[in-house]
Design goal:
Layout (H helix, E strand, L loop, with lengths): L2 H17 L4 H17 L2 E2 L5 E2 L7 H8 L11 H14 L12 H35 L1
Antiparallel strand pairs: 1-2
C-alpha cells in the first residue's frame, strides 16, 4: 500500500473512531482479548469458525464429522497434528490437504472421478467394438 493510501485510511479510521467514541486503548484491549481467545482454540475450519474442544461440539463440527471428516483435520495445535498423523497411518488417507474434505464434494469428487473413468472405459470399448464391426463388415 502506498503512503498516500495508508494516510487516507488512517485518517478515515480516526474519524470513525471519534464518531463512535472509540479510544486506541479500546482497540488494544479488544485485540488482546481476541489473541487470548484464539490461543485457547483447538479447532478451526476454513471459514474461521472455532471450537475449544470442550462441551458440546458446534454445528460445523457435527456436520463435518458426520460427513466423514476427522476432527484432527481442523486441529491447530501440535498434539492434534500428531493425532492426525496417527489417523493417516491407520487409514492410509491424508485428508488435511483435501480442499473438499468434510464437504459433500469429498464423496462427490470421488464418485465423479469414478463415473468419468467408467465413461472413458465404455467409450474405449465402444469405439473398439464399432471399429471391429466396421472391419468385419468391410471384408
Amino acid at each position: 500500500m502506498d503512503e498516500r493510501k495508508r494516510d487516507s485510511m488512517v485518517a478515515y479510521l480516526r474519524r470513525r473512531m471519534a464518531e463512535f467514541d472509540i479510544e486506541p486503548e479500546d482497540i488494544a484491549r479488544s485485540l488482546a482479548d481476541d489473541e487470548a481467545r484464539f490461543r485457547q482454540v483447538r479447532y478451526r475450519d476454513a471459514f474461521g469458525q472455532t471450537w475449544d474442544g470442550k462441551g458440546t461440539p458446534p454445528q460445523w463440527v457435527v456436520q463435518a464429522t458426520s460427513a466423514g471428516q476427522a476432527l484432527e483435520h481442523f486441529a491447530i495445535d501440535e498434539t492434534a497434528a500428531l493425532h492426525a498423523a496417527e489417523a493417516q497411518a491407520r487409514t492410509g488417507v491424508d485428508w488435511r490437504d483435501d480442499p473438499f474434505a468434510g464437504t459433500r464434494l469429498a464423496s462427490g469428487k470421488a464418485a465423479a472421478f469414478e463415473a468419468h473413468e467408467a465413461h472413458e472405459v465404455r467409450e474405449r470399448r465402444g469405439s473398439w467394438s464399432r471399429g471391429g464391426e466396421r472391419s468385419l463388415h468391410s471384408s
